[in-house]
Amino acid sequence: MSTITVIGSLNYDLVTFTNKVPAGGETYQANSFENHLGGKGLNEALAAARLSSGATHKVRMVGNIGDDSFGKELKQALVDAKVDTEYIKTIKNQSSGVAVILVEEESGENRILITAGANGDLKPTQQEYQTYFSQVDGDQYVILQNEYPHTIESINWIHANHPKINISYNPSPYKPELITEKTWAQIDLLIVNEGEALDVAANLLSSKESDEFKTTIENDKVKGFSQLAGKLQQLINPKNVSTVVITMGSAGSIYTSKEIEPTFAPSVKVDKVIDTTGAGDTFFGGVVLQLAAGESLPTAIKFATIASSIVIQKKGAAESIPTIEDVKKHL
């Protein structure tokens, strides 16, 4: 049995839908308001669980919630999706994480403000890491992002103590101080969007080389990001899956590994984009799930692309994440 462990955030999303985002000092009448479950960690765990084909995979969540009604809802959503919640801790006298999201309805683009709440206390100790990974059997993947304080500590501990576990990382929200050559050499699977890819290049490459990639991308996006994906793949850990994926929104994605040259994968066209919240997390969870199941990288990318295309046609993050049956209808 393969195991996917997600370490990260659980947020309650407060979403406002509007025609435009007001400028500073401006008051604008919005169209509607909704509340949804979210947080990158929760979304990734739900995606991996809902897109699973059954008993061959185990999905676990490591995270914190507050002792409030938001926290109870967040944990119950994971329980309902059959995610193992043994390592979700309730922090007393603390609020659960909250994300305030503004969605421009015409484009579906979103702007997000995050209050960490209990997520800010997610700082596992050495003993806790040992407990999480005391029984490491079968194919193992860990999904990480930057919505909790100890991302780098997680990477360092897992790589040092269980080097065969595939560390899957999305450096979002982007924090340049976390992007170092040492950290990069410990990553096994990197998934970034085009903006994050350029930010990473600016941190790890010389200014000349970074500028050359930008110029190529301006003239030919697919060619430029293919070259950049190849360069970033050379910098990550070569011993495990050693895979880099750069997503380009509606333009598709680029993927590469130690065995596959940079390859372009087209996006799935949809009639109308409603809300892009959670699409990237679903793509991430879908790719990891497929690789953990033994599928090839091209198959994983196709599967995850379909899954994320379903998400953007619905409102909300967690609620819009599809099941494997939903994806199979489009395969």
Automatic annotation (TrEMBL):
Catalytic function, reaction form: D-ribose + ATP = D-ribose 5-phosphate + ADP + H(+)
Presence of keyword Plastid: no
Binding sites annotated in the UniProt record for K(+): 275, 277, 311, 314, 316, 320
GO BP field: D-ribose catabolic process
UniProt-listed InterPro entries: Carboh/pur_kinase_PfkB_CS, PfkB_dom, Ribo/fructo_kinase, Ribokinase, Ribokinase-like
Keyword Cytoplasm attributed: yes
Cofactor list: Mg(2+)
Keywords: ATP-binding, Carbohydrate metabolism, Cytoplasm, Kinase, Magnesium, Metal-binding, Nucleotide-binding, Nucleus, Potassium, Transferase
Domain Carbohydrate kinase PfkB span(s) in chain numbering: 2-323
Range of residues in the leader sequence: none
Coiled coil, from the record: none
Xref: HAMAP family: Ribokinase
Family from the record: Belongs to the carbohydrate kinase PfkB family. Ribokinase subfamily. Belongs to the carbohydrate kinase pfkB family.
Quaternary assembly: Homodimer.
Name of the molecule in the record: Ribokinase
Species: Hyphopichia burtonii NRRL Y-1933
Gene field: RBK1
